[in-house]
Specification:
Radius of gyration: 16 Å
Number of helices: 3
Strand content: 35-45%
Shape: globular
Strand order of the largest sheet: 3-4-6-5
Helix content: 25-40%
Distance between the termini: 31 Å
Length: 131
Amino acid sequence: VTQTDHDQQALAACARTAALNGITNITSYSSDWHDWHDPARYDLVLGADIAYDGDDHAALLAVFDQTLNPGGTILLADPGREKQPAFIARALTAGWRIDKTLSHVKELKPAVVDNSLAISILELSRHTKAH
């Protein structure tokens, strides 16, 4: 498991969460989508609430191109942010296949009893040629 973020506090929170869940052997480092230097490639890339800024969409998709192995999958959780449709449109134009599903999760501190949030799960993959 490799965790990246540009914010050290976010990385620290991820490390605490992993430790609480008994997950060890995690590589963690600070990174910037606009200045990406990680040569590693992965079969699975996970992200949560990362497509909220339209100015980052091109850089984010470029990182996906650089890091995803052929036949790999990207799973993004998005809380329905305003920029989600623009991100999806840009990804489709760039040749990504996207499957979107909704998952309803209970709010941690609901304003209304039994209130839930609709979270979009975006599954991105590249179109592959059949052999």
